[in-house]
Structures are given as C-alpha cells and as structure tokens.
Specification:
Blueprint: E1 2-7, H1 10-20, E2 27-32, E3 42-43, H2 51-60, E4 65-68, H3 71-75, H4 78-84, E5 89-90, H5 94-101, H6 103-112, E6 120-123, H7 126-133, E7 140-144, E8 153-156, H8 159-171, E9 182-186, E10 191-199, E11 204-206, E12 211-212, E13 215-217, E14 221-224, E15 229-232, H9 239-259, E16 266-275, E17 278-285, H10 292-296, H11 304-313, E18 327-334, H12 351-354, E19 360-364, E20 367-370, E21 373-376, E22 380-388, H13 391-402, H14 418-424
Parallel strand pairs: 1-2, 1-4, 2-3, 4-5
Antiparallel strand pairs: 6-9, 7-8, 7-9, 10-11, 10-16, 12-15, 13-14, 15-18, 16-17, 18-22, 19-22, 20-21
Helix pairs in contact: 7-8
C-alpha cells in the first residue's frame, strides 16, 4: 500500500521508520518530511496545513492511507477534508481535535463528565483575569487556550509573575490568536506521565506509557518547549495505576466525547500527573506525542501500519499490543536559544559515526542536507534514541552518543530519565 505521513519532525521520522518495517508498505511519502528521512520516504513539497493540496496529492497518487503527525493540520480540518473526498486518513476530525486545539473545550469536557483534573477558571478579558489573580494563592498555572507549540503553559509563583504572564499572552499576543482566552488553574504536584492510546472511537488500544520533559533546562527549569526528551517504560507507574488511569480517565473521556456526538478516531493522548489523591489530567493531545513517540515506537513489536489500517477500516479487534522488555531513552538536541530565538544553517558533525551503532536510532527533526553535509534548520534538531536493558543502561548509553554529535551552540538536557533512576535506586544516579 501507498502511505503518506504528514509532518516534518522527529515524530514523523519515527513513524516513517516504523512503517518502513511493515510488509504492507510499498511506498511511503512524507509531506513535507525532512532531509534525514529521504532513504525511507519520498518528500512531498506541500505545507502540512495545506489540507486541500494534500488531498489533491493523495487522490492523484492513489495514496491508500494518510497518517497525520502534528496537531496543526488536525485542528485545521485535514481529516474532514480527506474524508469528504473519500480518502483514508488516521486522526481525529477538526471537531474531535479541539480536545487539544482548545484547552477551554478540554477542561469543560473534564468538568462536565467528572473526569479528574485541576480546578480552573476561564477568562476572555485580561482585566478580569488580573482582578482574579489578586485574591488567590500561588503557585498557579496559566494556559493560552489554543495551540502554542507546547509553550503556552506558564507556572507562576507570585501575583506579579501571574499578571506579567496574562499581559504577555492576552495583550502582547505572544502566541497570537491562541491567547484570546486563557485558563487559570490550580497547581498540582506529583510525578507526570504520558498516556497514549489508539482508538477507533469505541475501543482503546493502549500504547506503552512514557515520560516527557518539557522545560528547556535540567531540573525542569526554564521555559516550556515542545519536548526535550522522553523515556519508556515509566518505572514508577505500576500496572494497577495504569489500569486505574484507563478506568478513571481514558475510557470516561472517550465516552464523554461519544455523549457529545463526537466520533474520536486516532491517538488519544493524556498528559497526566499522579497526585496523592490519584491521577489527574494536565492536558490532552490529539496525536502521537513528540518526543514520546521516539521512545515508544521503537519498543513496539507489532506492525503499527497494520493496526492503523484496521482502525481506519473499522475492523479493529485486537485488545492489546506487544512490547519489547528493553527501555528506550530519547534525548533531543536543540539549537542554542531554543525555544526563543536561535540560528539555523550550522553544520552538524558526528552523524556518520553514530549511524553505525545498531541500538541507536537517530530521528531527524530540524535538519537540512547541503551536498553531503547536514545543517541545522529548526529549534529541535535531532532526536537520539537508545534501546537497552534497563533505564539506567539506556541513559548512560544515549549520553555517550550525544557527546559524539556537535554543532554550534548545541543544547540538550543532561537529566532525561535520571530522576526516575534516582528515585528507584539512588546509587545508580549520577548528576
């Protein structure tokens, strides 16, 4: 079958890599893709938000299945466009994708159907929001309603900091129209975990749990990013806790959408926090996580393309997926200054050497090839993923390979997964 993956980052490289292993994949296209995946897929020079252009390409080239990576085309209605044209596509419709596209919508669903989350208030008027901030306790969490590239959430520890965040989001519009409305919610404490499941709208097929690291600096310091690294499985999440998450959150969310007459097909992703009173929802995403997918998909034994095809065809019957016992750790190598301002066009050295390691996967995100050299072309440049026996071993190995890559002002977090190792076995922790 002919498959098209929409998107251009490390997640899309990981999806292409996984689909390439399928006996069903005769030809893979990536729209627009990146120069790091051209050995596996043919790039398509169409912007991922050009839903009409992508649908025309799919019809002309007789694409059998399209899989959408990023949230932007989903919220823009790419699934609606494809379905109206009789084209097979994996992902939620525009209406269903609002679970990620509107934090207000997501919180209202959670509140209406009594699904555990932090208490919150919604504001459309910055002056009313600032007035509210004068009489509450801190810390609090302030979120831009719409899509903000993973950077629209601000944890504030004082009224002054909170007022500044409101003004930046609602008055200065640092996230554009995403800041028309904001959510101010209680700050929750606990361990975070990312839960993803494939769904046909009726059945939830769990993917392996993972843990993302959003702040740009070690120790969860600095501004939020789209993700600086991830690992899977999550050692502090027990099977009993995971079952409870599906009982309290994942299944009720799917049923809530059904009650709202919204058919949700694709990836249902809940970013959760494990509090002392149980798991609670921090956010929803309507697609594969990035960089969570770069840690989760390498552990999957099943043919992902076959599973997705079953979902789109409406014949999903399997109840579980199978996973290797090894741990996976993904570290994001970013351009200096990311997620704020950063330079592009810097030559990347070391790729030829690390491409020879059997258990190391290199997923390109923001790279471009000039001649026989790769240069940087984005904020998140490369994703390095290691599969190894145990989290401690995977962490040590991936950072050995990180040191073999270099480009000007390269930045990465040096603590991906280390807090989990420290908590489970302090003697294995090395700062």
């Amino acid at each position: 079958m002919k498959v098209m993956v929409v998107g251009s980052g490390g997640r899309e490289h990981a999806l292409v890599w996984k689909f390439y292993q399928s006996e069903r994949a005769d030809k893979i296209y990536a729209a627009p893709g990146n120069d790091g995946l051209t050995e596996l897929a043919e790039p398509v020079d169409i912007d991922m938000t050009d839903t009409t252009g992508l649908a025309k390409f799919a019809r002309k080239n007789e694409i059998d299945l399209t899989v959408v990576g990023p949230e932007e085309p989903l919220v823009a209605g790419i699934v609606n466009e494809f379905q109206a044209s009789g084209l097979k596509i994996f992902g939620p419709t525009r209406e269903a994708a609002m679970l990620e596209g509107s934090k207000v919508f997501a919180k209202q669903i959670l509140n209406k159907y009594n699904i555990p989350t932090a208490d919150f208030e919604v504001f459309t008027d910055p002056s009313k929001a600032i007035s509210y901030l004068k009489n509450i306790e801190y810390p609090r969490v302030i979120k831009a309603e719409g899509l903000a590239g993973g950077q629209g959430t601000k944890i504030v520890t004082s009224r002054k900091e909170a007022i500044q965040a409101v003004n930046r989001i609602m008055e200065d519009r640092i996230f554009g129209d995403a800041g028309e409305r904001i959510v101010i919610e209680n700050f929750l404490t606990g361990q975070e975990v990312s839960i993803m499941a494939l769904t046909d709208g009726e059945i939830l097929l769990p993917l392996a749990a993972s843990r993302d690291h959003k702040p740009v600096f070690d120790g969860d310091e600095g501004p939020n990013t789209a993700g600086m690294g991830a690992y899977s499985p999550v050692p502090y999440l027990s099977q009993a806790e995971e079952k409870e998450i599906y009982r309290q959150i994942m299944h009720p969310t799917l049923k809530a959408l059904q009650a709202e007459e919204i058919n949700y097909q694709g990836v249902l992703y809940a970013g959760l926090i494990l509090t002392s009173s149980g798991p609670k929802v921090l956010e929803f995403n309507a697609r594969f996580g990035d960089p969570e997918s770069q840690a989760v998909l390498p552990r999957l034994k099943d043919d992902l393309l076959a599973v997705i095809d079953e979902i789109v065809e409406g014949r999903l019957e399997r109840k579980k997926l199978f996973w290797c016992s090894e741990s996976a750790v993904c570290v994001v190598l970013a351009a200096g200054g990311y997620p704020l301002t950063y330079e592009e066009g810097d030559e990347i050295s070391g790729l030829e050497k690390i491409n020879r390691y059997d258990n190391l996967l290199v997923f390109h995100a923001g790279t471009r090839k000039i001649g026989d050299k790769f240069v940087t072309s984005g904020g998140r440049v490369l994703n390095l993923t290691i599969l190894a026996d145990g989290l401690f071993s995977a962490i040590n190995q991936v950072y050995e390979h990180v040191e073999e890559i270099d480009f000007r002002d390269m930045h990465y977090r040096s603590d991906i997964g280390r807090s989990a190792v420290q908590e489970l076995d302090p003697k294995h922790y090395s700062p």
